[in-house]
Design goal:
Elements lengths: L16 H10 L3 H13 L4 H21 L5 H20 L9 E6 L7 H12 L3 E6 L4 H11 L3 E5 L6 H13 L4 E4 L8 H5 L4 E3 L2 H9 L18 H8 L1 H15 L8 H24 L3 H16 L4 H12 L6 H14 L2
Parallel strand pairs: 1-2, 1-3, 3-4, 4-5
Length: 347
């Protein structure tokens, strides 16, 4: 007697599927990744689950592997491109005619992490919205011009890195000034959206599903005075921003004396150190802008872990922080923020 066995259909409940998909994107296997997505859809898996539970979740793992120095930046970029291709495959098989309103979806000026907001755009399309997806790095002036031309019911703005908050604030104020409410998302607005609220957004969502729930609820909100929260920052913030180049270059010059191993750095290591010092100043400015040291302390803790994974000792970061601090003796708020960051490095 012949016994026929059949392979059970793929399911997101399979414990090994996530690791298999991660291996595919990590190996640059675009066709394999798309095949997994298509098979899930053919087996009846809702496209929303494919986007959130497979593509988005895997992308989070990709970021973690880069931070842990297990993947190179090139491999991370290649994996992201494959995830975008897989997302396009989902979109190609999932068409819903718009029955709701029109919404503009974009990343704030200077924000290049477009995949999360692209997933949001596809989720909105499946929910019946007409979506204008503007992608990454949208300057505020161009965003407002688009709003005048299209007249959407809402704008969804994404900010993944807190250093973009000042630009996000300008975009939020501009959108609300022309009567278009804003829903914000992305970890750049804080773990609970606290900075989105401070910048005057009409709503905040931790993820794509929560954004849909907010838009399906009491929407649109009544827009109050768009300029009520339009002015943040102070003299210290202004000084740090205007003197960014001087703060970085001076710290870099003094670093060789304060941390002798720097003298043995090659050009690539030297450039990476200059970039890291630039991030220190940028996150300091963002913390001063919204008057919340957590932006800076979170950055310091994350950077310390990333550097340690690359065998850079925490003392190197601590010295860099102090070299920036030494140039800000007349700015007590900035010093307090840096001191809070240094405290996070102590065992």
């Amino acid at each position: 007697m012949t016994v026929f066995t059949t392979t059970p259909p793929r399911s997101l409940d399979d414990p090994g599927l996530g690791e298999e998909y991660l291996r595919l994107v990590g190996d640059g296997d675009e066709y394999g990744a798309v095949e997994v997505v298509n098979e899930l859809l053919e087996n009846g898996t809702p496209p929303q689950r494919v986007m959130l539970d497979l593509i988005a979740r895997t992308q989070g793992r990709v970021g973690e592997l880069w931070a842990a120095n297990e993947w190179s930046i090139a491999r991370e970029h290649a994996a992201t491109a494959i995830s975008e291709r897989a997302l396009a495959a989902v979109a190609a098989r999932s068409s819903v005619r718009p029955t709701r309103g029109r919404i503009t979806v974009a990343c704030v000026d200077g924000e290049w992490h477009a995949l999360p907001v692209r997933i949001l755009g596809e989720m909105l399309r499946l929910d019946g919205w007409r979506v204008d997806f503007l992608g990454a790095n949208v300057p505020g002036t161009h965003l407002v011009t688009h709003l005048h031309q299209t007249g959407p019911d809402a704008v969804a703005l994404s900010c993944m890195i807190a250093t973009r908050l000042p630009r996000a604030h300008a975009a939020i104020t501009a959108c609300r000034s022309v009567g278009v409410p804003v829903i914000a998302g992305g970890r750049g607005f804080g773990p609970d959206g606290r900075w989105a609220v401070k910048l005057g957004t009409d709503a905040w969502a931790a993820g794509a599903q929560e954004a849909l729930d907010r838009l399906n609820g009491d929407w649109p909100p009544r827009i109050g005075d768009p300029y009520e929260t339009a002015f943040l920052g102070d003299d210290e913030y202004t000084y740090v921003v205007r003197h960014r180049g001087d703060l970085v270059s001076t710290a870099l010059v003094r670093l060789a004396a304060a941390y002798p191993p720097v003298s043995g750095y090659d050009q690539r290591q030297h450039d990476a150190t200059a970039e890291d010092l630039g991030h220190v100043v940028d996150f300091l400015a963002a913390a001063l802008y919204v008057d919340d040291a957590q932006i800076f302390t979170d950055f310091v803790q994350w950077t310390s872990a990333v550097l340690e994974a690359r065998e850079v000792p925490p003392v190197a970061l601590q010295i860099g922080l102090m070299l920036v601090r030494d140039q800000l003796r007349d700015y007590p708020a900035a010093i307090a923020v840096i001191d809070a960051g240094v405290a996070k490095l102590r065992p």
